[in-house]
Amino acid sequence: MTTYVALLRGINVGGNKKIAMADLRGLLSGLGHTGVRTLLQSGNAVFASDKPSPERLSAGIEAAIADAFGMAVKVLIRTGPQLRAVVDGNPFADKATNPSRLLVTFLSGPPDPARFADVDPEDYLPDEYALGDREVYQWLPAGILSTRLDQKFWDRRLRPAVTTTRNWNTLTKLLALLAGGSAA
Fold first, then answer.
1. What is the enclosing helix (H) or strand (E) of 83?
2. Domain spanning 2-83, CATH architecture
3. DSSP 8-state assignment for residue 49
4. Which residues contact 151 (CB under 8 A, 6 or more apart)?
């Protein structure tokens, strides 16, 4: 059995695509996954499965959500070790002083560095970003509401990848769930 993290995109945000976490736990358990736990109301789940393909897991969960709730929701899957590698690979660990302003955008595929060739990072200071394997780290010291690294910026550079973003607080809580801790 492998332990996975499911990151659902865009549910329970601004009153849209509402899914109760109890219903999500029931859906994942109904798909045969075990040890299902959820975190917060924004679509974060940890579960164990004997299915070895994250792509098939994503597709199966997306189809089950469409069937059960009548909505299209994209799901990104990471294994426990993959999520640990994301946290361990934090390029802003020495400067990020507020975990709610350190974000990780998870991608369905690797980012294309060529799509960032025309960007001068100094134009966006004090905000910074760094490309990872299948994620983008963002350090936004003044917060997400004042950044020029807005959704339009990311959409132009990351599409057609499916994306979903979590702050550092959420990631560390997901790691605790993976380690057998309880949801906060």
1. helix 80-88
2. 2-Layer Sandwich (3.30)
3. E
4. none
